[in-house]
Amino acid sequence: MPHDTEPMMLTACRTGPLTGEARVPGDKSVSHRALILGALAVGETRITGLLEGQDVLDTARAMQAFGAEVERVSEGSWSVHGVGVGGFAEPSGVIDCGNSGTGVRLIMGAMATTPIVATFSGDASLSRRPMGRITDPLRQFGAEVTAREGGLLPVTIRGAADPVPVRYRTPVASAQIKSAVLLAGLNAPAQTVVIEAEPTRDHTERMLAGFGAAICTEVTEEGRVITLTGQPELRPQEVAVPRDPSSAAFPVAAALIVPGSELRVPGVSRNPTRDGFYVTLAEMGADLTWQNEREEGGEPVADLVVRHSALRGVEVPPERAASMIDEFPILSVVAALAQGTTVMHGVAELRVKESDRIDAMARGLEANGVVVEETRDSLTVHGMAEVPGGATCRTHLDHRIAMSFLVLGLAARAPVTVDDAGPIATSFPDFLPLMRELGADIG
Ligand code: S3P
Predict the structure, then answer these.
(1) Which portions of the chain are predicted below pLDDT 50?
(2) How far apart are CA 340 and CA 326, in angstroms?
(3) What is the pLDDT, as a whole number, of residue 1?
(4) Of 53, 246, 305, 327, which has the fewest CB atoms closer than 10 Å, so is most exposed?
């Protein structure tokens, strides 16, 4: 695991224009789901463009522990021989999900309605994150759960032998909660229903439909009502994973704030439940051009051309938060170099990500001379023509905090250092070589 190794300090310095093609890795959310649904289908699922980051590799290993055959064929191409819905075997060891909240939460859901016992663990960051939001609905299916005080990992689940379907309203906007309930509903009889007040990423629903499950979404006054018919036979698929818009956000942001830059980012997911960052950038005055819109693997994708732009601060409304939840750290860097003030509303969920991202960004920006204000669920960044920089930022085992501050260093007056860039390997293993190839001075 990269986070078990020595901390890797890195420093980013002000650079000349970034140019070229930024081939960012496969989508992390789609990659986890392709492995899990492949493991729950009967027969061989082939996946191309899989993100080979540590989070996803941990999920691949977990699927093997539950009895699926998972094999790397070549770079990004993987084969999964699934065991069918309800066919998971009892793992002999602890399932270590490393740094990955998505991995552990979705896998807990996927096994909770099969009569086997599994224990889940994770690294120091994951061991601080709330699991009660997942285990509460899983108990409603009939699963028995034991957890550390406060609902923390390690968690042991004895899956329900006789599961009952569940109707569940998610208490916070979270695709992980929605997905865990839907995956548990796969092996329950009749219909499992999830109701979400705000739309969250819908990769699970799209992919379940692709694998042949009966699933429908209705938009009603109480929000999105998603109904899944349990105990389907999932048919194996060929899944082409689009490139991750959350990873693309880093080179895109770098191009926007480094004068003279122009980048092309091919094949990025344009899923509307993931586009809040790009909507916000457009409102800030960013020069973004989307080309060749198409569909790949059940997801809309397009090529993006981005050029350095003079940006202005904006108010990001709370109802947009779910569609850009992982992009607020890098947005706050972009906001630091915009003219005027940016206010991000409704972002309390950032406090329970890989780190408390509001706190991590606020402290790191302040240390680099940026004026910020925070409340429990908002972050305000006062933009400035030139960010002084010069500080070392704490990354708290959080890949997106590390990448955000390295991007800041590319435009700040003095170099910006991160205390540990190791966790970047969880989601964007080639971040450094890619950024250097585009012209970034990071070392
Ligand atoms: C994810 C959902 C989001 C996001 C995470 C990936 C997913 O978490 O932050 O990086 O793949 O379902 P929440 O659903 O808890 O907001």
Answers:
(1) 1-3
(2) 23
(3) 43
(4) 305
Query: Is the CA virtual torsion 221, 277, 105, 32 positive or negative?
Result: positive
Residue 203 dihedral angles phi and psi, to the nearest 5°: -65, -35
Cα 175 to averaged position of ligand 1 atoms, centre (Å): 6
CA 32 / ligand 1 centre spacing (Å): 11
Between the CA of 443 and the centroid of ligand 1 the distance, in Å, is 30
pTM above 0.90, yes or no: yes
363's tokens: 């402290």
Q: What domains, with CATH codes, occur in the chain?
A: 10-26+246-442 (3.65.10.10), 28-229 (3.65.10.10)
Q: Where are the beta strands (DSSP E) in 244-353?
A: 262-269, 287-296, 299-307, 315-316, 341-345
Atom of ligand 1 nearest to the CA of 106: 12
- Phi-psi category of 187—alpha, beta or left, where left has phi over 0 and alpha has psi -120 to 50? alpha
Alpha-carbon gap, residue 302 to 269, rounded angstroms = 7
Catalytic residue of the set 55, 123, 326, 398: 326
| Pocket (CB within 6 angstroms of ligand 1) | 29, 102, 174-176, 179, 200-201, 325-326, 349
The pLDDT, as a whole number, for residue 298 is 85
Mutate which of 32, 129, 325 to test ligand 1's pocket (most atoms within 8 Å of Cβ)? 325
Please confirm, yes or no, whether 326 is among the known catalytic residues: yes
Read out DSSP for 303-325?
EEEEE----B--EEPGGGGGGGT
369 CA → ligand 1 middle, Å: 31
C-alpha–C-alpha distance, residues 431 and 248, integer Å: 10
Q: Using CA atoms, how far apart are residues 343 and 315, in angstroms rounded to an integer?
A: 5
Residue 3 is predicted with a pLDDT of 44
Atom of ligand 1 nearest to the CA of 322: 16
CB proximity list for 265: less than 8 A, separation 6 or greater:
21, 22, 23, 24, 243, 248, 251, 252, 303, 304, 305, 306
Q: For residue 2, what pLDDT is reported?
A: 46
Q: Which pLDDT score, from 0 to 100, does residue 296 have?
A: 87
Residue 137 DSSP code: H
**Ligand 1, atom nearest to 28 Cα:** 11
Q: What is the pLDDT of residue 59?
A: 98
Nearest residue (by CA) to ligand 1, atom 15, is 174
